[in-house]
Design goal:
With 148 residues, the protein is mainly α. It has 5 helices and no strands. It has helices at residues 2-8, 26-54, 60-70, 73-100, 118-144. Helix 4 (73-100) packs antiparallel against helix 5 (118-144). The protein is elongated.
Length: 148
């Protein structure tokens, strides 16, 4: 019995480094990792936003104090990072939904040698959407910093 349980255990030698190791999944794995990081950042922003808007309930002076505090360049930069994280997370999430629904993957068929993985079929969608994300980030950066 003990041997059966031992054989079912995964040999996880990488630990936390395994989160950042792409292995056979290549660039999609890095996109997935960045998706996790941006999602975590957006959750943190949401919690901070709730805290800041909660200051409004304490009165006009508390609101003015918190807004004066948030007018520092550091918070402007963090606000810009939220914008970039949102754009990447939204577009990559759209890609993941399309992939999950098997759109752009082709019809299922019996496997024939040499085998073709679905990763190669959806990679063009990945590159198109990442180029779209880059274009949106560039244009929104120009607008954010008032360069146009």
């Amino acid at each position: 019995m003990e041997n059966l349980l031992k054989n079912k255990q995964y040999n996880n030698k990488l630990g936390i480094i395994g989160w950042f190791y792409a292995g056979k999944y290549h660039i999609e794995r890095y996109a997935y990792i960045l998706h996790r990081i941006t999602g975590f950042g957006l959750i943190l922003y949401l919690l901070f936003h709730i805290f800041v808007t909660g200051e409004r309930a304490k009165g006009e002076q508390a609101w003015k104090n918190i807004m004066d505090f948030l007018n520092q360049p550091l918070f402007k930069f963090l606000e810009y990072l939220v914008l970039v994280a949102f754009l990447y997370h939204a577009i990559n999430g759209f890609r993941l939904i399309l992939t999950e629904l098997a759109i752009f993957l082709g019809k299922p068929a019996s496997p024939k040698y040499p085998y073709v993985t679905s990763i190669n079929r959806q990679r063009i969608l990945f590159f198109i959407l990442m180029i779209l994300a880059a274009i949106l980030i560039i244009f929104s950066s120009l607008e954010f910093f008032k360069l146009i």
